[in-house]
């Protein structure tokens, strides 16, 4: 029987601004606190033996925010990479960034590629940061990549042609968590979430912690995944703790 262990968790980390607002603090304070929650959840994945974690950090639509907030977010990305590089590496984590990085400044791109390079051969948790990422971009990009490798006369594109050129080839998220009460995808992995279990919580991202994460995991294990069939595809086996 196929087991239904959670392999891949994706998270839309939302609510940093509201969290700061509730405290009469600037939005930047919420973003900074959000980084502490990121660290907690990475650690929770290590302890719970989850093999892939994908975090939505900046969407292709977030560029419409005030330039001051964007500058702050970019410097937080840079600072977080520098401060956490060796720790991520020492924990055997393989880090990858997904999204259209061409819009980032050269300095940030260099830090991103240094971190990817450093952790490239690690075989523990696969950690993906979605930055300047959009689900529509991912699909269009996959089609363009496919077209580069086929004859001009090719008229038909198959599902598999797109699938294998996406940021994830199979290995799609089992569980999506979105914090801060919104129940929408906001253009996050539109294709890859086709059969993902969706968990929404009112908890604002800076407050998200191991206990909240376990609530989401509990929700997942109470689901029967049928993928269009009549019965569960297999016995649900909890991840080892
Ligand atoms: C999520 O928090 C972080 C990013 C989108 C970068 P928000 O900044 O969206 O916080 P809210 O939704 O305004 O509370
Ligand atoms: C989604 O949050 C993007 C990230 C968490 C990076 P948003 O706050 O941008 O989403 P909307 O605008 O509420 O849909
Ligand atoms: Mg938001």
Report how far the terminal alpha carbons are from each other.
Answer: 22 Å
How many distinct helices? Answer: 7
CATH topology: Undecaprenyl pyrophosphate synthetase
Class computed from helices, strands and strand pairing: alpha/beta
CATH architecture: 3-Layer(aba) Sandwich
- Poorly predicted runs are none
Query: Roughly what fraction of the amino acids lie in strands?
Result: 5-15%
Helix and strand string, N-terminal first? EHHEHEHEHHEEH
Which value, in Å, is the CA radius of gyration? 18 Å
So what's the CATH class? Alpha Beta
CATH homologous superfamily identity: Decaprenyl diphosphate synthase-like
Shape: globular
- Arithmetic mean of pLDDT: 94
Spatial sequence of strands, sheet with the most strands: 3-4-2-1-5-6
Biggest sheet record? 6 strands, parallel
Helix content: 40-55%
Question: How would you describe this structure to a colleague?
Answer:
The protein has one domain (8-135, 171-237): 3-Layer(aba) Sandwich (Undecaprenyl pyrophosphate synthetase), CATH 3.40.1180. It has a six-stranded parallel beta sheet, with helices on both faces. The protein contains seven helices and six strands, in the order E-H-H-E-H-E-H-E-H-H-E-E-H. Strand 3 (94-98), helix 4 (106-119) and strand 4 (126-133) form a beta-alpha-beta unit. The chain has 241 residues and is α/β, with parallel strands linked by helices. It binds 3-methylbut-3-enyl trihydrogen diphosphate (2 copies) and magnesium ion. The site of one 3-methylbut-3-enyl trihydrogen diphosphate has 10 residues, from helix 1.
